[in-house]
Specification:
The complex is a heterotrimer. Chain A is mainly alpha-helical. Chain A has one domain: BFD-like [2Fe-2S]-binding domain (Arc Repressor Mutant, subunit A, Orthogonal Bundle), CATH 1.10.10.1100. Chain A is built from 4 helices and 3 strands, in the order ββαααβα. In chain A, a hairpin with a 4-residue loop joins strand 1 and strand 2. Classes of the chains: A mainly alpha, B alpha/beta, C alpha/beta.
Chain lengths: 92, 396, 546
């Protein structure tokens, strides 16, 4: 796969950047996320998390099942601060 | 006895900022060091820190450390060949009563004696340099040489640099037991095997107490669960790291543009003693060691934040993630540094009570000095665990 | 904070069914769905579904959704739309953003029926406007009435890729090609036949190498793969398209399940990381259940049955159903699920789900400190062997010469039997198990053609070689607009969409009972009776060859 392909669309992290992180010794998706920001964007990795796992599996000759994927945290959808604060509100 | 897999002069337990900084400095000093981390580097307390690199509002024993640390922070990118995103944008303490302002004037006086310049700003002055703060406060205590950085980049930066200098970093490796003969350490047994060593550094943060128990030692560190929210990236809206004690709120804008907003939760009532009457910190819902978020902060954090900033634009901004983090709290809220007298070669680097990140660079340097030469360039005796020996862990 | 007895997240087939099972027995259920309308994926499925006649088979997806919703509403289930569950916290507390505000709910039991999300495929140019998920294209088209593009490349020949291709054709787009990385079609043969006979080529062992264009997709480059799935240099072919749809698989949308603290395992054939659950759909977190695609990618019919299973288990747990009756009902439901999980597609899912239950049992045993014997097939990552393609039961030439007779071109074991029910002559037999290939008793068949619109796979034709000396008639399903009219001359296409001759339209039947599957009767040269399977009103366009 071409190295310049963008893997994390939200943060525009390319395959090359991810491979570079792995070469530095950042070997899990979480390490890669912390270093490159892949998976930290608005969609929180919903598109790229499996791609990152695949790249790690490929580079480290592992099964995808052996790669711990990125974790999920609330809110599982992005929500406006004012709605979380209870200040929004359009009681129809 | 499991298989001997390694031999090291020093074994560091914990891959957070303290462990990695110490590993780097020890490797730099030519020592054979192995760091063991049960999960991944920067997966514990350091991963959840607000990232403040603050000097002001610290106890007397810490101020000197913080100021020395800032000197190291300024050159850290170059030293580690890594972008730590360290920026010196200043730190605001937003003050809500005359009594608080008085307290801070006293603190400034003390800080000035050590060479740290701070100022008290009126709301109108604050408006000019930080327009997103709603001018519903009395004054702001500002330290222009305070700042913040990226905890992930910094910690990985230290680990990568340590490895480059010959340190062995073992992730996914959990400490099971520590063997010692009389008062001398012999080895550490982990989930991957045994490492022969004579020196161990306990940099396990909120889990330091558990490591102590492995040795039958009572290390007075209790975890305290906190919570933060991060937003989508925004254009630059605030340069300073902002803390508002009366409502337990703090926030900063990361280099990526996201706002990182947190709340000081207070399950043990430790903060209340040091704060003004009438301050309302939300109750923490659970005092567990896990990383499961609780509900209430998810509502409280945005509420308090939006109360403190100009609306409505910031209300339209989305929160994309929340996480709990743990402070490693000691009974007097000051860190534990130094060798444990009852066990030669066992060092503590823990108990930073929610203020450790900024001290990472200097603590690593001092611990390396201590381990290599037996002495430190800044005295650490006031921060030794011996100050708790005679008493049971007491409320301060 | 509001207390609810049962909170169901997701108003798709699994969630609606679970809710109805509980509410019908007296439980109080609140369904929370982030969409504006209920039905989950069903509300954009326009095609007729496989399944048992007892269970809404041959109904179009969105109608199945409507009847499930009605059932739930009649049972007294409360449903909140535009309600986003953002997290599940300790003690089964849910955070829900509804009507612009965050609310706190506390439930006695929770069912997570959150469905699936589309997998991604990254290649140079995949971020150009015009590259989208097949599901996204389907939503755009079927819900919002917007054509995603005019010239489509479909990547992936699973059922999603085949069905969405068909729907794109119905909507007026041209599907230039379907590419499939594996050496065989991923979805059902009948779905593939539906688009092949329209002239859409399916290239096996091919993938997309690159999409290119200035500010949006203007073309793509396809490349052939060797037996190890690696691209073969020099086999690149350019294809002019303005849209690339990715139908490369689904994976459970399991964020909430994760956040709630449920344990997971990785099973490729279920879509990746799936939550562990037991035979009653209970996860490793007490009081939290899963059902439907989130518990492993499957079909709507199994989502319904899993929802039923979870609903029965919860109703019994809360005291609305005596345990003995619950056990019996659960057994029945499990038998239904087993029957659905047969055949080339279902069988793989069946084995994968058995592996999931094994993994759950192992986890529970380990937690209890019990010794766990290594099971031989603890994780299922392989594929079922390819089922041999059965020969069509073609009525003999002698029988065909006698008069009209049905030809059922359905060769795969699909859990499906509406053809049996549709025939008033008793000429079609499926029987048990429901995956059996349909058998035609040719002597009973009177050629009425009622089976044609009843077949969700559109795989039945009625041939009459007794029509005249030189001609035979063919009745075939035709779900396209504009419909031809009586007397028109149209092009006759074979199963590969190739032009083989002309046909005269004798009849166009489109009564309400056919539920929008018009049946066209055409006259063709007699020798073409077993070849012609589709018609085109225009000259079929030059097919790009690879």
């Amino acid at each position: 796969m071409d190295k310049e392909v963008v893997i994390c669309r939200c943060e525009e992290v390319t395959r090359a950047q991810i491979e570079e992180a792995i070469e530095r010794g950042l070997c899990t998706p979480r390490d890669i996320k912390q270093w490159t920001r892949a998976g930290m964007g608005l969609c929180q990795g919903c598109t790229c998390r499996s791609l990152i796992c695949q790249i790690v599996a490929e580079k480290l000759a592992l099964e995808v099942s052996e790669v711990s994927p990125l974790t999920f945290r609330p809110p599982v959808r992005h929500i406006k601060l004012k709605e979380l604060a209870g200040l929004g509100g359009n009681d129809k | 006895m499991t298989k001997i897999i390694d031999e090291a002069e020093v074994v560091i337990i914990g891959g957070g900022i303290m462990g990695c900084s110490t590993a780097y400095q020890l490797a730099k000093a030519g020592m054979q060091v192995t760091l063991v981390e049960r999960d991944t580097i920067c997966s514990g307390a350091t991963a959840r820190t607000g990232g403040a690199v603050r000097q002001q509002w610290r106890g007397p024993n810490e101020l000197v450390l913080a100021m020395e640390s800032v000197k190291l922070w300024k050159n850290l990118d170059e030293e580690l060949d890594c972008d730590t995103e360290y920026t010196q944008g200043g730190h605001f303490f937003v003050l809500d009563s005359e009594r608080e302002v008085e307290q801070f004037r006293e603190i400034h006086e003390f800080q000035r004696q050590h060479g740290l310049e701070c100022e008290i700003l009126e709301p109108s002055e604050v408006q000019k340099i930080c327009p997103i703060l709603k001018p519903n406060f009395v004054a702001v205590s500002h330290c222009p040489t305070d700042g913040h950085a990226n905890p992930f980049r910094t910690t990985h930066g230290f680990a990568i640099a340590a490895a480059r200098l010959g340190a062995r970093i073992m992730t996914g490796t959990e400490v099971k037991s520590i063997a010692h003969d009389h008062d001398e350490i012999e080895s550490v047994t982990t989930s991957r095997g045994t490492i022969r060593t004579g020196k161990i550094v306990n940099a396990a943060g909120p889990w330091s107490m558990q490591i102590g128990h492995v040795l039958g030692l009572e290390i007075p560190v209790k975890p305290s669960k906190q919570q933060q929210i991060i937003t989508e990236p925004l254009p630059p809206v605030v340069e300073q790291f902002v803390t508002r004690l009366s409502i337990g709120l703090y926030f900063r804008q990361c280099k990526s543009g996201s706002l990182q907003i947190g709340l000081h939760l207070d399950p043990f009532g430790l903060w209340r003693e040091t704060l003004e009457e009438g301050y309302s910190l939300p109750e923490a819902e659970a005092e567990t060691l896990d990383h499961i978020s609780t509900f209430n902060p998810l509502r409280e954090i945005p509420k308090r934040f939006l109360d403190a900033v100009t609306m409505p634009v910031l209300g339209e901004c989305s929160a994309i993630r929340t996480w709990p983090g743990l402070y490693a709290m000691t009974p007097d809220l000051e860190p534990l540094l130094g060798e444990v007298p009852s066990l030669k070669g066992f060092y503590l680097v823990t108990g930073f009570s929610g203020r450790g990140y900024a001290l990472g660079p200097i603590v690593g340097k001092l611990m390396a000095e201590l381990i290599v030469t037996g002495k430190t360039s800044i005295p650490l005796d006031k921060l030794s665990v011996t100050r708790f020996d005679s008493a049971s862990p007491a409320e301060s | 904070m509001r207390k609810v007895e049962v909170a169901v997240v997701g108003a798709g087939p699994a969630g609606l069914t679970a809710a109805s099972e509980i509410a019908n027995r007296g439980g109080k259920v609140l369904i929370l769905d982030e969409n504006a309308k209920p039905g989950g994926q069903l509300f954009k499925q326009l095609h007729k579904f496989f399944g048992s006649s007892r269970h809404l088979a041959k109904e179009r997806g969105f109608k199945i959704a409507q009847s499930l919703v009605q059932q739930a509403q009649e049972a007294g289930v409360e449903i909140w739309f535009d309600a986003i569950v953002i997290g599940i916290f300790e003690d089964r507390v849910l955070g829900v953003v509804h009507k612009g505000k965050l609310q706190k709910l506390q439930a006695d039991r929770i069912v997570l029926a959150t469905g699936a999300s589309e997998k991604a495929l990254a290649f140079p140019g995949w971020t150009l406007p015009g590259v989208m998920g097949a599901g996204a294209a389907q939503t755009m088209m079927n819900i919002h009435g917007i054509l995603p593009g005019k010239r489509i490349l479909m990547v992936g020949s699973g059922n999603v890729g085949l069905i969405v291709s068909y729907q794109l054709l119905q909507a007026g787009a041209k599907v230039e090609a379907v590419v499939e990385a594996a050496p065989k079609v991923g979805g059902y043969q009948v779905h593939a036949d539906k688009i092949r006979r329209i002239g859409v080529p399916i290239y096996l062992s091919y993938t997309v190498k690159e999409a290119f264009g200035d500010s949006r997709v203007e073309g793509a480059i396809l490349i052939q793969l060797d037996e190890n799935g690696r691209p073969i240099a020099g086999t690149e072919r350019e294809i002019a398209v303005d849209t690339v749809c990715l139908a490369v698989g689904l994976s459970p949308m399991a964020e909430l399940t994760w956040v709630a603290g449920c344990q997971f395992t990785y099973i490729n054939d279920l879509g990746g990381h799936v939550p562990l659950h037991n035979e009653a759909m209970a996860t490793t977190v007490p009081g939290i259940y899963v059902a439907g695609d989130v518990a492993g990618i499957g079909e709507a019919s199994s989502a319904i049955e899993e929802g039923r299973l979870a609903g029965i288990a919860i109703a019994a747990d809360l005291g609305y159903l005596p345990n003995s009756e619950a056990e019996h009902l659960k057994e029945q439901t499990r038998k239904e699920l087993d029957a659905l999980r047969q055949g080339p597609v279902g069988g793989r899912v069946g084995q994968a789900k058995r592996a999931l239950l094994d993994a759950h049992a192992t986890y529970i045993a380990r937690q209890a400190g019990r010794e766990v014997k290594e099971r031989a097939e603890a994780t299922w990552t392989g594929s079922a062997p390819e089922a041999p393609r059965a020969r069509a039961e073609v009525p003999s030439a002698e029988r065909r010469a006698q008069g009209p007779v049905a030809v059922i071109e359905c060769y795969e074991e699909i859990p499906c039997d509406p053809c049996e029910e549709a025939c008033h002559q008793g000429a079609i037999f499926v029987g048990e198990p429901i995956t059996s290939l349909p058998h035609l008793k040719a002597e009973r068949c009177n050629g009425c053609g009622l089976c044609i619109p009843a077949c969700p796979g559109l795989a039945i034709f009625v041939i009459d070689e007794s029509y005249s000396e030189d001609e035979a008639t063919i009745m075939l399903p035709y779900e396209f607009l504009p419909l031809p009219h009586k007397g028109m001359t149209v092009k006759a296409l074979d199963l590969q969409g190739q032009l083989v001759g002309e046909a005269r339209v004798l009849e166009v039947r489109n009564p309400k009972a056919y539920d929008c599957t018009p049946v066209i009767k055409i006259a063709v040269s007699k020798e073409l009776s077993m070849t012609v399977r589709h018609i085109a009103l225009d000259e079929p366009k030059e097919r790009s060859t690879v």
